[in-house]
Design goal:
The complex is a heterodimer of chains A (about 270) and B (about 450). By secondary structure, chain A is of the alpha/beta class. Chain A has a single domain, classed as P-loop containing nucleotide triphosphate hydrolases (Rossmann fold). Chain A has 9 helices and 12 strands. Chain A has a 6-stranded mixed sheet with strand order 6-9-10-3-11-12, with helices on both faces. A 4-stranded antiparallel sheet of chain A has the order 2-1-4-5. In chain A, strands 7-8 form a two-stranded antiparallel sheet. Classes of the chains: A alpha/beta (about 270), B alpha/beta (about 450). Chains A and B meet through helix 2, strand 7, helix 3 and strand 8 of A and helix 7 and helix 8 of B.
Chain lengths: ~270, ~450
Amino acid sequence: MSLFSDSFVSTPVIRPDADVLLEIRGLHARVEDKAILKGVDLTLRAGEIHAVMGRNGSGKSTLSKVLAGHPAYTVTAGTVTYRGQNLLELSPEQRARVGVFLGFQYPVEIPGVSNLEFLRVATNARRAELGQEELDTFAFEDLVRERLTVVQMDPAFLDRSVNEGFSGGEKKRNEILQMALLEPLVAILDETDSGLDIDALRIVAAGVSQLATADTATLLITHYQRLLEAITPDFVHVMAAGRILRTGGRELALELEERGYDWVDQELASLELG
Amino acid sequence: MVASTASPKTLAGWTGDLLAQLPAPSGPLTDVQRRGRLALSALAPPSRHQEAWRFTDLTLLASLDLGPSAPNARRHSPGDSSSGPSETSARSETVCLHLDGRSDPLAGLVLPAGVTPLADSELVLALGHTLAATGCEQDWPVELNHACASQLLALRVASRAKVSLELVSDGGTGLLPLRVLLILEEKAELQLCQRLTAAGAGLTSLVLEAHLGRGARLEHGLVALGPPEAALLAHLALEQEPESEVRLVVASAGWGLSRLEPRVVQVDGSATTTLRGLQLVTGEQIADTHSHMAFEGPEGQLDQLHKAVADGRGRSVFNGAVRVPRAAQRTNAAQLSRSLLLSDRARIDTKPELEIVADDVRCAHGATVSCLQQDELFYLQSRGIAAEQASALLKRAFCEEVLRELPAPARLWCPFERLLAAADPAPAAQSGLAASTLPRVGQEPEAPEGEKG
């Protein structure tokens, strides 16, 4: 039995006529021999911001990596459709090129590869997919300096190796900068708020909000409600044991913050017993 | 000289044939040649039964048929700066010397101020001194060079002079024995960029010794790019007085067999040594670096990084010996070997060999062997970069850590694409790597035509 009143179990629809960008149905996935996702259903429409919350180990990050095509994860059942296309058939780079972006919880440091040139190559890969002209060094510098303002990032970070020696906050800003350059239609942000101080969180959240438009969908994966104070989600999903257990509005996040996740365990147990 | 198709020779048999075919000793190294030939006829050639040669198969060397050496017709002319140095180098003070093993490298050349050839009387005292100080004067590859080399480049850099030299040996085919002796007086500074290439089957034998006086500085960048049918044997012997500084950066690829032995001794400690090495192997290539660092006084410093990339059925060997005797208190040494294993049929053998007797020292060492990091690959792919290009980027990034430390002229000789092409010409051309990869950190991107300035 739910600890929440029925008012929390609402499924508001913001624009029922908006295009479905991403549709996940019955998604099961495992890493090595361990099943992690056990039937995830989720629909993201244009203009929507979704938040997925849950305990450690609930499958939130796995969901993000499976959507981005991480080779360590194997999809064993279910479908993921991105704008009518089977996303699971695409390689990780193809997914990025068609407009699916994963903001990493732990952005990877790559010593020796210039951040500026990395961003340029990535941006041009996306532009080529969109049929846009490739940007040369100079045109790209103009673009990147404009987009730096989204995350108030010091241009000096462009001259360094990708994420090398960046603080946690700088890495997350660099992720959002990439998002600003790649202009994805579906952005999946995995624990974007982790490791951020209040100021950095505010800047990153403002950047994400600025990039979320009526044509895009955003999937925020987070432990805490504090990110959702800065970015108002249209839907909040509670994930447990590899599936979405509950869906609600922002109130659900507030309730989680106040009462913790124990009720989730109880509800999960009652479901399993039932 | 061409690769033999006859029945395989032993290395001893090959050595005997070589000695029989050498011309009579002549030139400035007559005495050295005599000594080398005597020694070589008595020495047992290296074999895999010896610890120092355990991983190094010398079959290629023994398979090289002897014959007259042929120069490379592609020798660079003045002003050809596209891939090589020239007598009109971008640095006006830089002088380029071509070493071909047959002719006097100084003939017709005006040396920069502060550099003079060593007199015969000085040669008698200096030649072989650093080889002995670094304990390699009787090593088989050194004696081989002694036996064969008939020409010598022997220079003195005057106290407080600041000089830049380029040494180029664009080998053709056959035997190319190179002998170099450098003496840097107190507080002299020499930037030495050296390039070794070969056009076909053959053996390049390099013995370089340098003595650094107090406070002297040597920055030596060696780029060695050979074809798979050629072998390279190189001894780089460096002797440092206190307060001197050595920066040695070596990048090599493509040789069927290469054996590099940087050997450094800090005779009274209180000197600084920086060693950087990068070797790429693929196909059936073997690249072996045996470095030897000896501190014979207190407060010496070593910073060593050796990197290797092994693909195909290539074999990379690194052995890093560091000797810290009781006299070498307060030594501060760090050695790191990092290797990238790109094929399940490639092989990497890496071994630190620290011998520490002094009790008040800091000697760190580490060795890693890894594949391309999956998390790095995925990160790049998740930004739309194709898997093949992502792999090339990571490989490049791995190599650039060493390449970017080459002195500027040598860096121009050895961009990553050229190193890769030397290691494995076909895939580099097929992948279009040169057109698609990223410049290293800190490098100015190439401006499109008409947009520079």
